[in-house]
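Lab channel / #folding
Pinned by the channel admin:
"Please post every new chain as: sequence first, then the structure tokens as a reply. Keep commentary short and put observations after the output so the thread stays searchable."

First post following the new format, from NK:
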Amino acid sequence: MGSIDGIVKYDYGEGQKIFNRSEYHPTSKEEILDQQLIDSFLLSHAEKDCLKRGTKLSDDNYQLCWCESIKLSNGGFNNKICFPFRISTFQETLKKMMNKIKNENSKEEFKCTCSNNKSKTIKGRYNSVTGEVKVE
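Reply from TO:
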């Protein structure tokens, strides 16, 4: 959950509880990866920071990508974001994303530069007009 100060108050019927993000210290492999991916998504607002965080991921099958969505129709706005992808399904995921855009009758170019804990740079992109999906 996102919040301005890292503190979330909630009540699931057992009285109000408080989650303080700064006091959360994950212990399992899954929790550690979840925190890394969420932190990157929420806190990386620049390409350099996003790609640096990618080199520190604890899972070999994940990468962090600095992606740009370029709207080619419908008066949308361009967007840049740090986003996690699984390496093993990166091309398949891009294809699904492109097909969703095509089904919405939108035209978009989507480009990503990604980094992982093996310090390997992977680039991926799709173009919903041409139907091209490429990972290199």
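NK: The mean pLDDT is 87.
TO: also worth noting, The CA atoms of residues 60 and 117 lie 6 Å apart.
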